[in-house]
Amino acid sequence: MSDIRRIEPGARMSEAVIHGNKVYTCGIVADKTMGQSVLLQTQEVLQQIDSLLAQAGSDKTRILKANIWLTNMKNFAQMNQAWDAWAVPGKTPARATMEAKLAAPGYDVEIMIEAAC
User: Fold this and answer.
1) Contacts of the segment 11-18: beta carbons below 8 A, 24+ positions apart
2) pLDDT along the chain (117 residues), means of 10
3) Distance between alpha carbon 87 and the CA centroid of its chain, in Å?
4) Other C-beta atoms within 10 Å of 75: how many?
5) Is 0.85 surpassed by the pTM of this model?
């Protein structure tokens, strides 16, 4: 049986869970830039992902899959502007972007990833 390690576990969820050689994050939203542009929110979320991956012994070049939710697909270009500046060419994951209502007003982007450790 493999060990399971949790990063920043809480009563409801953990920020990330490591099992075997994979790390899974929760859906990450921008707290500091909540209510601001999708560009700024995406940049904050990607910084949080970098931090969680570092804690798991991984990095953005090892992301296997990303799910992205936007409250409005008209903001797709802003999200991609932040993503493209952050992503490493040739090391990009499989990715899907969907439009959805998020947990609270002001959250306009949410990203959840799976990565190899």
Assistant:
1) 15/52, 16/52, 16/55, 16/56, 18/56, 18/117
2) 88 96 98 97 98 97 98 98 98 98 96 97
3) 12
4) 18
5) yes
